[in-house]
Amino acid sequence: MNDSQVAGEAYEGGSGSVLVLLHGLGGTWHIWKPVLPLLEKHHRIIAPTLPGHPGGPAIPEGVTPTVDVLADLLIADLKARGIEHAHVAGNSLGGWLSLELARRGFATSVTALSPAGGWATQEDYKAIAKSFRIVFMILPILIFLTALFLRFAWVRRTLNKQGMERGDLVSPAESSRAMKSMRDTTMLPALLLSMGQRGGIAPFKVNPPLVRIAWCELDKVIPFARYGKPLQTVVQGSESLFLPGCGHVPMYDDPELVTSVILATTARVDAPAAGSVAA
Predict the structure, then answer these.
(1) Helix 122-146 and helix 172-183: axis angle, to 10°?
(2) Is 249 helix (H, G, I), strand (E, B) or coil?
(3) Which of 4, 14, 115, 272 is the most exposed place for a label (fewest CB within 10 A)?
(4) How far apart are CA 246 and CA 81, in angstroms?
(5) Partners of residue 45 on adjacent β-strands
(6) Which residues pair with 12 in a beta bridge?
């Protein structure tokens, strides 16, 4: 790894084949903490903070933030870390990026958890974008008003109810970090605008690599009925499955289930390779 070229903050740990974990819009790598101890028993984990996010690689001045730009910067950052190919798992925007990495031939397998990018109409897109814009606008006030009350589990569960079912399991420190990260993702409005102008995921075929899309059953942000079905026809050759009892961000809701789904994907690529080496 060339430290002089690495641009962003990331978690690294574990051993085995490389698994890259990509968080959602306005987040950081910290959202993966519930599953890191489980996953790094099987893989070398690289969980970067995405470009344009606090702690992530900066978007060059004058460059419009788009998903393609984020994918370019992400791949450059991973290659600077010595990663040329890897398993990839992503949630929400990270799920969309994981599919883009499959399109570009970087991913050896993909587990996309409730990925963004699957709207059928502009009205469907506007419904998602509106909720993010509202949250982004009120966060400075929300952070100020809730600073003294995050120690209460019911407050954290209420604040996180749109994104997860068990928001009370997020610690006060992590809840504060998540809100501040969203507040400080200053490119968010411009990225939402470019998504609306450029559209969602363009159709492509994903065989190879192996791609599995896991839809969170209780997702209030990107519900399957409205956004998952269109994506099934766009990402040709992918497999679909569901995560029962989970909200849009499932890592706190059921870390064991999320881990098992990701490992089931990576094993289908790694196991045959291990068999060939043994033979």
Answers:
(1) 120
(2) coil
(3) 4
(4) 32
(5) 13, 19
(6) 46
